[in-house]
Amino acid sequence: MAEHISLAIIGGGPAGLAAAVAAYDSGIRDMIVFERDNELGGILNQCIHNGFGLHTFKEELTGPEYAARFIKQVKERGINCRTGSMVLSISPDREITAVSRERGLQIIQADAVILAMGCRERPRGALNIPGMRPQGIYTAGTAQKLVNCEGMMPGKEVVILGSGDIGLIMARRMTLEGAHVKAVAELMPYSGGLKRNIVQCLDDYDIPLLLSHTVVDIKGKRKLEGVTIAQVDNTGTPIPGTEQYYECDTLLLSCGLIPENELSLAAGITINSATNGPVVDERLTTSTEGIFACGNVLHVHDLVDFVSEEAARAGRNAADYIKEKGVRKNTPHIVGFTAGSGVRYTVPCTVDTANTDEDIHLRFRVRNVYKGCTIKVRSGDNVIVSKKKRITVPSEMEDIIIKPEMLTGVEDDITVSIEEGSI
User: Fold this and answer.
1) Domain of 32, in residue numbers
2) What's the rounded Cα separation, in Å, for the pair 53 and 68?
């Protein structure tokens, strides 16, 4: 027979821990946090650099220190956490199948589920890089775990493809450990990481950042011997004659993150093609009744502080759902959020204007670098929010707060767009 619980949280990283604490503080005691690793904390356990916690705790922490703050809160509340438990599937009616060494196969029926599985790195197979498959090619996250957790160096002569935050941080980390990072190549004409990481991880160590460049060939049969990097045009096509060979024994890939949504698909949840995460409303509810999503499984964040804030909202909303059983006070009036000019996506995707009584964090990323622009949130001819920005970049998530009173009388879908030359 299935074990019955009020709330199941899938993932014991920063999102799952923050959601658990918020749900507990909202009155839910009967919950389980499932974590496939043997320790809570998720990816933060290998992020030993500082820069975490400035928004949440008003001080600068390392990744393990940030995770420890939430782990302490979870333990103080006596929240049931099952580490070493892999969730195999979630059905549309919230039946969870999990397996662990201690308990074997488990079947759990939950009143509500919060998805907090995080994301994974894009592997080489998704990048279409020509050449052999020698030893010495790693994702940046794998290299980070080897260096920070296992005490192993992947190599000494390093090239990094992609300028995501993990890649930038590993450029500094490898340098500090004695490696020579020859270059960071980025396909796009702008960096995929935060500006502070470009300054602190590349500029401070004189590591060149090659924008509009990519790896076009890999040399080496058993072990990596070197890579050829070429400049690309505005379509991403390598430009003949711009090739440059870099002798190296290590190639790190930092080419984007993908939300872990195999369980979401099994639960029948609608996926947003722009984020590869679930489509959610203002309560972070997915298209499947009683299932919520938050953190990097929903959309990839730039700061873990924003993950924790979003997860706390998911925890409170899940608690409200369990206590109210999903009943809303008024007849629902659903309005969609649409990504307009210059905007890749929005989270949430819809809002129930008749039942919204909390501020909505409308988060999105832009498609390009825009200088001297204005963010416009409008419904028809009605401008709900107008915010001037000196610069917006794809690597930094934008956050617009919409108060419930701003939605009074809104009937049409709400469009978020970037207007250039408005400042």
Assistant:
1) 1-121+256-326
2) 11
Q: How confident is the model at residue 115 (pLDDT cuts 50, 70, 90)?
A: very high
Q: Which residue, 255, 276, 303, sits at the end of a domain?
A: 255
pLDDT at 10 over 90: yes
pTM of the predicted structure, to 2 decimals: 0.94
Average pLDDT over residues 211-236: 95
User: Which of 294, 326, 358 delimits the end of a domain?
Assistant: 326
Confidence tier at 422 by pLDDT (50, 70, 90): very low
Q: Is the peptide bond before 348 cis (omega within 30 degrees of 0)?
A: yes
